[in-house]
Write a structure and sequence with these properties.
- The structure holds two protein chains of two kinds.
- Chain A contains 14 helices and no strands.
- Chain A is an all-alpha fold.
- The two termini of chain A are 17 Å apart.
- Chain B is α/β, with parallel strands linked by helices.
- Among the domains of chain B are: 165 residues, 3-Layer(aba) Sandwich (Rossmann fold), CATH 3.40.50.300; 62 residues, no CATH class.
- Chain B is elongated, with a radius of gyration of 25 Å.
- At the A-B interface, helix 9 and helix 10 of A face strand 6 and helix 2 of B.
Chain lengths: 338, 337
């Protein structure tokens, strides 16, 4: 439909984004008045000199990470739901995060097996990237061999199963300390990125968004099924390959920087349709990107509310906050659509 | 459709031709051949009804002609080229398939507008000309009132009409339609077939309709493609194929005589009836009697006479009169045989 009819809906999404961005950065173990926050954000100095670094180097980096990671995972989820024409698909359906988990588990837990432990701030990042990339190469190779999307879906699930089996074996043989460390990584983490890393992640998100946007026409045609899409001039194999590359880029890099954050990619496309109910990817892609940012900001805010002294794992919150809403959406609309 | 692109194709020019086309699937244990060595010609301005029994491969041929399925061998030639063309041709061929549409949250507007996609730029800017073709299509199919509905709100028949409107919106010289009327009621079925024929004749489009509606096909098609049991396709005008027995041999009609257009009845009662009267009342009375196992003959001891009083028929059996055929049949059922 004409995008004009969605104008006020855009305003809702933009309003939510701004609101939860401000809520997110104004909450934390140190309380900073909202007027001070606005003053610091607009380039001024806070009444307390400690506030500025807290805000800029800790809260703002985390909020930006939320926005970028939420958008990236949600776009990945949307692409996979369209590719498989299945509302249950998400970016982790390709097995990327499982590959990353396996690689990270290897790095963390091989120490106890007597293999030299290379360890440092970038070891985890490198391992996660390499794990995602390896699974990506496997998936791409197999995607070229199979025409059938369902086969590809099953292959993704099998790779995930293989990876988690290997992780289980590693866990069984490893030290309690290393297990604990790995477990914390699997919870996901949105803090701890510096501005340079955020810039990287943001650049990857932009590339992913541009690729997704160039695909809006084939994506819309895709919804009718392979044969109709082909009859409208869509090159099925090429489009599928680009969709997989785009999703892998987005989900893989988020996993590398933030750990395997689950549920966001699955839930956000459905939640976004609560606000903008359309099948048109020209509208869906920016809407889902904004929806993902909002959802992640909300989840991160919730993770630090209780007591303020400790932070709950983000992966627990995404499901805790999202699952009831998705169930409600399903019951309300009687059917879930891709 | 008042499209500049397809109007003005001279009738009779060949839009699509197959050369030694074989249709089927590659299988590990040898090819499954559905049609072999086909040399078909699709002419501008023709409505072709493609008929054949279930499982003979109609959908596969439609997909192969549309370039959605690779032929086992042979070629497909399109009208403006001398060379063979492979693959889908969005500007020349539009399709309605029997594939299920899973994206039911889509609006009818979005669905029908997909027909314009091959002609839009990457950001899908819809131009006035596209709007005009869209409007024309939904007006032709008469689904203006459905435009803002979502697909899950439609009945199967309405969904089919929307799919048809989508194909028309693509505005191609060739339309390949696989059972486009399967879910429609009789009125809509007749209307759609008439509309397709009109479209073919007026705009010079070539339209192939795979269908099981024998009666409709016989009355509307310019040409019949009849899929035989020999992996070939018999082509001809409907009447010729009826009279030379092609239909009978392929469909193996059981208890239906195509040449008279009647279902065969067994006179199981062993009772002969003589019928006096004329016009359509006579025909329907004969039908009722035969359907109930009576044999209607020129001379018989039992006589039924049809009278018309001010246009209302009644039936006389012996000295009794009946105002409906049902009453007459009841009375005849109680006669001693």
């Amino acid at each position: 439909m004409a995008s004009a009819s969605y104008r006020h809906r855009w305003a809702i999404l933009a309003g939510l984004l701004l609101l939860f961005f401000l809520v997110n950065i104004s909450l934390g173990s140190v309380s900073i008045p909202i007027m001070e926050i606005l003053r610091i954000l607009s380039g001024g100095e806070g009444s307390n000199p400690a506030w500025k670094p807290i805000l800029l180097d800790f809260r703002l980096t985390k909020a930006m990470t939320c926005i970028i990671a939420g958008s990236a995972l949600s776009i990945g989820g949307l692409l996979m739901q369209t590719l498989f024409r299945n509302p249950l698909a998400g970016p982790d359906i390709l097995g990327l995060s499982s590959g990353a988990s396996l690689a990270v588990a290897l790095v963390i837990m091989t120490g106890s097996l007597g293999i030299p432990f290379f360890y440092g701030p970038y070891a985890i990042l490198l391992a996660a990237s390499a794990g995602s990339a390896l699974v990506f190469v496997i998936i791409i190779t197999l995607a070229r061999k199979t025409r059938d999307h369902v086969s590809l879906l099953l292959i993704g699930l099998m790779i995930a199963a293989l990876a988690s089996a290997l992780v289980s074996i590693l866990q069984f043989k490893s030290r309690a300390d290393d297990q604990q460390y790995f477990l914390i990584w699997t919870f996901g983490s949105l803090g701890g990125l510096n501005w340079q890393e955020i810039l990287w992640l943001g650049a990857i998100l932009m590339v992913g968004l541009i690729i997704a946007f160039l695909l809006i026409k084939p994506l819309n045609s895709w919804l009718l099924g392979d044969h109709y899409a082909q009859s409208l001039g869509v090159n099925i194999r090429r489009t599928r390959l680009i969709m997989i590359i785009c999703t892998s880029l987005l989900a893989g890099s988020v996993t590398a920087f933030c750990g395997p954050i689950a549920f966001v990619g699955l839930a956000v496309p459905h939640l976004t349709r609560l606000v903008i109910n359309t099948m048109d990817h020209k509208i869906l892609i920016p809407a889902v990107a904004m929806g993902g940012a909002v959802f992640m900001l909300i989840c991160d805010t919730l993770s630090q509310i209780p007591g303020g002294s400790f932070i709950l794992p983000i992966n627990a919150i995404t499901a805790l906050a999202g699952a009831p809403v998705v169930i409600w959406v399903i019951l309300r609309s009687k059917r879930v659509q891709v | 459709m008042n499209s500049t692109k397809t109007s003005g194709i001279p009738a009779g020019s060949v839009l699509l031709r197959t050369e030694n086309l074989s249709v089927g699937f590659h299988k590990p244990d040898g090819d499954l051949v559905l049609f072999d060595d086909l040399n078909l010609e699709l002419q501008a301005g023709q409505l072709v009804c493609f008929m054949g029994t279930n499982g003979i491969g109609k959908s596969s041929l439609i997909k192969t002609l549309a370039g959605l399925l690779e032929p086992l061998s042979g070629n497909r030639k399109l009208f403006d080229t001398d060379s063979f063309r492979k693959g889908p041709e969005p500007a020349f061929i539009s399709v309605v398939l029997t594939d299920n549409v899973s994206a039911l949250n889509m609006s009818v507007y979005d669905l029908v507008m997909l027909g314009r996609y091959p002609f839009l730029n990457w950001s899908m800017t819809i131009r006035e000309a596209d709007q005009a073709i869209f409007q024309q299509a939904i007006k032709t199919i008469r689904i203006e009132h459905l435009v803002n509905k979502r697909l899950f709100e439609l009945s199967d028949g309405q969904l089919q009409m929307a799919m048809l409107a989508r194909a028309l919106t693509q505005d191609t010289p060739i339309l390949l339609l696989d059972e486009p009327t399967a879910h429609l009621d009789l009125n809509n079925r007749v209307e759609i077939m008439n509309l397709l024929r009109g479209l073919a004749h007026e705009t010079g489009k070539a339209i192939v309709v795979a269908t099981h509606e024998l009666d409709l096909a016989l009355q509307t098609a310019d040409l019949i493609w009849l899929a035989g049991n020999t992996k070939k396709i018999i082509t001809g005008i409907p009447e010729d194929l009826v009279l030379d027995g092609s239909f009978d041999s392929i469909f193996q009609f059981k208890g239906f005589d195509l040449k008279t257009g009647k279902v065969q009845h067994v006179p199981w009662r062993n009772v002969s009836v003589e019928l006096k009267g004329d016009g359509h009342v006579l025909l329907w009375t004969k039908n009722a009697l035969e359907r109930n196992g009576y044999q209607v003959v020129p001379q018989a001891p039992i006589q039924v006479v049809i009278h018309l009083n001010d246009g209302n028929p009644n039936w006389q059996l012996g000295d009794k009169k009946f105002s409906s055929l049902n009453r007459l049949l009841e009375a005849m059922g109680s006669l001693p045989t």
